[in-house]
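Continuing from the previous page...

OK, I double-checked the sequence for Cobalt-precorrin-5B C(1)-methyltransferase against my notes and this is the correct one:
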Amino acid sequence: MEAVPLVNTKKKLRSGYTTGSCAAAAAKAATSMLLSGVIVNKVSLLTPKGVTLQLTIEDINMSKDSVRCAIRKDSGDDPDVTNGILVYAKVNRIQGNQTIVDGGIGVGRVTLPGLWQKIGEAAINKVPRQMIMQEVTTVCEQMGYDGGLRVIIEIPEGVEIAKRTFNPRLGIEGGISVLGTTGIVEPMSESALIDSIALEIKVKKANGQEILILTPGNYGADFLNETLHIDINKAVKCSNYVGEALDTAVEVGYMKILMVGHVGKFVKLAAGIMNTHSKQADARMEIFLANAALEGANLETLQAIEQAITTDEMISILKQSGHLDSVMKRIMNRIQFYVQHRLGMDIKVGIMVFSVEYGLLGQTEGTEDLIIEEIGDNRVTS
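Thanks. Re-ran it with the corrected sequence; updated structure tokens here:
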């Protein structure tokens, strides 16, 4: 028997298919059953990527005037919150010769400008909408039907799932979006997250928000809310993708940016590290060590920093040695340099770094002006 390696380091990740593909396939199957009166249990779908899917139809409900059926979402080896949900299409005849596509329960409604759909429309993106129309039209042509149809896409679990997505922040209420540009879910969650961050930045710009507020995550959001008294709904959580968020800000024309982040993330910016995930780079200790040395810290202090595990430990050491303020000033200057270099000199940026234990640690020149512009003359104190 041939030996089998314990770890397959070259495993190919399995792709899945999008909610858009599910909706189009369900609409195709429901239309076929409505016009033929014959139940079908499988449906094929050619995706925009050129991949043909063979999908099982579930939960079929037929009547004389309408058919409702579902396709189960499969996200492949990149499972998200929609993995395993049922995406329904309900198709019924209507007067005239038009095909109308709309969203029902669990499909969000657009409430803010800046998205592809108009305000009030169902959050069914452009490509999925085209896929649905194409599949329904093809079935009608094959069966010689030239009347009107109404296609309602429903995702019953979408109401609850939406609460765990970016949708409410993007101005999509009541459900999730029907998404997909290729019809296939590629196992690249990092890419999907970056796209979501970029979309949120674009939506805020389209809605007239003049100052873009960026923070990596929940610590920053809490600091914005509790210390700066800034509405966290105005902020974009950029996770580790600071560089990509700044690039999008430039792309959409932001001229004022306020960045607020925990020292554990933002200290990395002082070395020009714009993806702050630990798998990309750490360098927190090295940054504190180098800047402490430049500020004249003695060997004992530098060795203590080198042995420290957390940034709060490093801050405590610098505080005890009397170097914290000067080191943080130097670090903030380097952060400003790299961020401004990424953005360009025409964009006004303010950057604030804090620690949960020690509070405000440093801010760049102009930060306070942006905060005052955002919330009024309630100056920030440490």
